[in-house]
Amino acid sequence: MKNTHKKQLNPRNYEAMSKDEIVSFLIEEQTRNNELETKLAAMQEMFKKVMDQHYGKKSEKTKALKDQLSLIFDEVEVTSSTDEELESELDDEKVVVTKKKQGRKKISESNANLEVVEIVHPMDELIEAGYENIGEKTLEKYRYQPAKIWIDRHIYPVYQKELEDGCTDVKSLYEGHTFLKGSGASESLVASVINDKYAKSLPLYRIEQSFKDLKADISRQTMSNWLMLASRSYLTPLYERMKHQLLQCDILHADETTVKVINHQDGSDNQKSYMWLYRSGVTQPNILIYEYQPGRGQRYPKEFLEDFKGYLHSDGYEVYKNLDGTTQVGCLAHGRRKIVESLKSVIGETEGKRIGSTILKSINHIFSEDKKLSSLECADRKTKRDETLKPLFDALKNQLSDANLKVLPSSVLGKAIQYNLNQFESFQRVLLDGRLELTNNRAERGIKPFVIGRKNWMFSNTTRGAKESGIMYSIVQSAKENGLRVEPYLIHIFESMSQKTAYDPTYLDSLLPHSKSLPDHLYIKSKPSR
Question: Is residue 101 part of a domain?
Answer without folding.
Answer: no
